[in-house]
Amino acid sequence: MKPISIFILILLCISGCTQRQEPVAPPWGIASDSTDAFDLDDIQQAGELIGLTLSGPDTYYDYHGHHLGVQYMLAEKFASNLGVKLRVEVCRDTAEIYDRINGKEADFAFMRFDNDTTVAGWLVAEGKTALAEELAAWYQPEMTAEAKAEEHEWLTGGMIERHVYAPMLSQGAISRYDLYFRTYGRRIGWDWRLLAALCYQESTFDPRARSFAGAQGLMQIMPSTADRLGLPADKMYDPEHNIEAGTRYLKQLERELSDVGDRVERQNLAMAAYNGGLNHIRDAMRLARRDGRNPHRWSDVKVYVLRLSEPRYYQDSLVRSGYMRGSETAQYVDDIRARFKKYKRSVR
């Protein structure tokens, strides 16, 4: 039996449609009358809506520890409307999605499915009549454009709150926090000026900086990372505590990359992981090795960090964490290294 096909007009909105259309009830499929289906009431009682998808820029991806993708954002809003949490399970391909939907392993799938009308749609598992009807009543065409605008805000930094300070305090001094960079740089064996360059890239030396994703302080530490590092919430904006925790996190990333023998290359990869996530960097390293490049050299790995935004790469069987907005991470490491060179020429 085929799952219910829910034809949401998402494709047209995602591809740049800006003209407002008259509200039209989307032609949701009709569910079967199966009496043993785990339907809406059961989902709400369990408190969890299970959705399947593929990794991709329009569907679902990780960005600085926060999940984005217009389809995901819509699915999350729908789950919130139901009063439940959304559990996302990423599949390898559409065949797996169909198998799992037909096998009653999930409630629905959120992504663009091709069909006879060339309009994208979501799939709701057979027998979930009430869930399909609730989705039909909830969805409005303008929601897609709203989700896309919200995602744009996240990606362009429109929600970042920080002051921009000069990259150099004065001749012979980089910032008001040089003592902390020196102290904690020695503890992890990093040149303190490299830490300062990374800090400026993160927060422009603003101790009160707060990012769209919730990263806080000079080193832009996420609350979940702070918990793992033992940094109390009331110390997140304290310059010394924030720098200490950030340098300790860099050291942890270095340990995770202990297979990289060259120290400079290991630092480059650790900084890339600090920005883009270690799992994405490991994906890029695996692809580099597969293609005969050096997985322990940043210049080689950077090529695949950039390519992880292309379907043929983020859908590769070697890739475990899917789509990555790699251009930011590639620029991040290169900018830090360029600023570090300037600092070394100016400050001892």
Topology:
Elements lengths: L3 E3 L3 H5 L25 H7 L1 E6 L7 E3 L2 E3 L1 H13 L2 E6 L3 H9 L5 E2 L12 E3 L4 H10 L3 H15 L21 H11 L3 H12 L19 H7 L9 H18 L6 H14 L1 H13 L7 H10 L3 H4 L11 H21 L2
Parallel strand pairs: 2-5, 2-6
Antiparallel strand pairs: 1-7, 3-4, 6-7
Helix pairs in contact: 3-6, 7-8, 7-10, 8-15, 10-11, 11-12, 11-15, 12-13, 13-15
Tally the helices: what do you get? 15
**Overall number of strands:** 7
The overall average pLDDT, rounded, is 87
Percent range for β-strand residues: 5-15%
Which secondary-structure class do the elements indicate? alpha/beta
The secondary-structure element order is: EHHEEEHEHEEHHHHHHHHHHH
Ends apart, CA distance between termini:
71 Å
* Rg estimate, integer Å: 23 Å
Helix content: 40-55%
Q: Can you tell me the residue ranges where pLDDT is under 50 for at least 5 consecutive residues?
A: 5-35, 116-120
Largest sheet: 5 strands, mixed
| Tertiary shape | elongated
Biggest β-sheet: strands ordered side by side in the sheet: 1-7-6-2-5
Features:
348 residues; single chain; 5-stranded mixed sheet; alpha/beta; 15 helices; elongated; 49% helix; two-stranded antiparallel ribbon; 7% strand
Describe the fold and architecture.
This protein is α/β, with parallel strands linked by helices. It is 49% helix and 7% strand. It has helices spanning 10-14, 40-46, 70-82, 94-102, 129-138, 142-156, 178-188, 192-203, 223-229, 239-256, 263-276, 278-290, 298-307, 311-314, 326-346, and strands spanning 4-6, 48-53, 61-63, 66-68, 85-90, 108-109, 122-124. Strands 1-7-6-2-5 form a 5-stranded mixed sheet, sandwiched between helices. Strands 3-4 form a two-stranded antiparallel sheet. It is elongated. The model is unreliable at 5-35 and 116-120 (pLDDT under 50).
